[in-house]
Amino acid sequence: MTTPDLNAGELPRLTTTRPDPQHTVRELFGHGGQFFTVPDSFPGGLPDHISFAAVVYYAVLRTPNLDSGEAEFAVRDADGRNHTIGEPAPEQDTAIRSALSALAERRRAYAQQVEHNRVHVLGLDPVPPVRIGHTDTGTCTVHVRCSCPQVEGLAAHYEHVSLAAADWLDANPTRTWELCPTSPARFATPSASGRITATFRNADGAAVVEIQHPDGHREVVALARVSDLA
After folding, report:
1. Theoretical Cys-Cys bridge with 33: which of 25, 43, 101, 152, CB 3.0 to 4.6 Å?
2. Residues near 80 by Cβ (< 8 Å), separated by ≥ 6?
3. 21 upstream amide cis, omega within 30 of 0
4. What is the pLDDT confidence band of residue 119, given thresholds at 50, 70 and 90?
């Protein structure tokens, strides 16, 4: 079964439960409905260094209109914010398309703000290099072509991931680390391209990423081999 292409105008596939954690729409919102997901590749045409969560969950609910009493469909954010996205509509497909249109507009506006901040507020190049910073818990965060609106306070930045791994991250094999959630999840290695599915240290203490290839094969790659120019 192929994944719907939202950028081509297809509607997302609906499911009765959210897999992680497993809930029904009624359990979360008190109304019947279904879930759907929106990938980080939506909407198309954004700069490569602008990235969003790999998968975002939304719920389309069947609720009564408070003014007319008639049933209508509304889309809400199912990842904890519970915001209504787009405009409610009598038809489920119409409500979903309205939500997708609103989400695309929001993500494009965010991308424009990120680039404006980088150039006109922070005085940085439009396309950012690799950056490394610290979290409040002491975990090292690797920002690959970082798209964070605010990038001050980072300990160091490099033009290539290999320099980051060799010169800083792997200097202490016991240091915990993670990939910045706003960094692109797609990477290229000498063998193929893929998507980051996990980050950890291997038995030798080196920082590595797990990449899932388009055919489903998973490969563990040392960070020094990953290119930020993909």
Report:
1. 25
2. none
3. yes
4. confident
* Whether 118 contacts 146, CB under 8 Å: no
What's the per-residue H, E or C state across 62-118?
EEECCCCCCEEEEEEECCCCCCEEEEEECCHHHHHHHHHHHHHHHHHHHHHHHHHHH
CA distance 81 to 88: 17
Cα of 130 vs its chain's centroid, Å: 17
Q: Find tokens 């292409």 and name the residue.
A: 5
Longest C-alpha distance within the chain, in Å? 65
Residue identified by tokens 């954004």 is 46
End-to-end CA distance of the chain: 28
Query: What's the whole-model pTM score?
Result: 0.57
Dihedral, 21, 24, 27, 31 alpha carbons, nearest 10: 150
